[in-house]
Amino acid sequence: MGTAEPFVARMSLGLIEVLDSTLYQNKDEIKDVILRLFMECLIPAFLSLRELRKIADKEEIPELTKTKNFDDMCKSLWSAYKDRMQSVAKLLGYDIGFLFQRDSLFEQGCDDFLRAHPEVNAELISRMKGNRAKWQPDLLRFRNDYLEHQTIKREDVASLYSLQHAEMFFGNVWVAIEEILVILMAAKLPPMIELREIPESERIPSLPKRFGWALANPPQLP
Q1: Closest-CA residue to 7 (of 30, 37, 29)
Q2: Residues 6+ apart with CB under 8 A from 160
Q3: What residues make up the domain containing 173?
């Protein structure tokens, strides 16, 4: 895989470039944790997904092989999202553990976070709520209740075992990590610059980064 793969370009390069533009003093430490998240969680998850793409519709491939790739992918994705992303956030100066708590504590955590951190764009909370309303509960239930604790049966999650769900989980997780971390980083950009989302029409196919920075108040030519 190369930088033409969006998650590679955006997680291993684009996110680091935004970090380099911030005022953080511990950039090297933050970079190390981000790159470990990328190498130790997202890369293994992608390799499992890539294998599923090859074998998902092949009847001669044992179901156990397909199941193992799906399970391994979900384990790596949940580790990236719940554990490694929180580690990066803490180095950025934020506790986002409320994202993984039950509904009442999550809602209270959202309110407390916004009051404690007015410098962070409220879009962060909107993104978190969107994730919890859409895909996060399914991945949480699959990983915790089925794979980890076996409190539910295989038939309870059988509908998730498809290439379509694998693609969805992978895409949703890495994009969520990117969005959450970049919004947190943006709060520490110097006053003269701001976060910029690069329009898709301007993204280089061989390196399709999503975020960069721009002058907050560019001079106006007469």
Answers
A1: 37
A2: 70, 138, 142
A3: 6-214
121 in Cβ contact with 179 (< 8 Å): no
CA neighbor of 93 nearest in space, from 113, 77, 109: 113
Tracing tokens 């990066």 back to the chain, one arrives at 88
Residue 5 backbone dihedrals phi, psi, to 5 degrees? -75, 120
| Distance, CA of 105 to CA of 92 (rounded, Å) | 22
| Position 185 in a domain | yes
Give domain status of residue 222, yes or no.
no
Q: Give the chain's domain count.
A: 1
User: How does pLDDT run across 150-204, given as a tens digit for each residue?
Assistant: 999 999 999 999 999 999 999 999 999 999 999 999 999 999 999 999 999 999 9
Structural domain contains residue 183? yes
Q: Does residue 219 lie within any of the structural domains? A: no
Q: Any residues with CB less than 8 A from the CB of 199 and at least 6 apart, and which?
A: none
Place of tokens 């190369």: 2
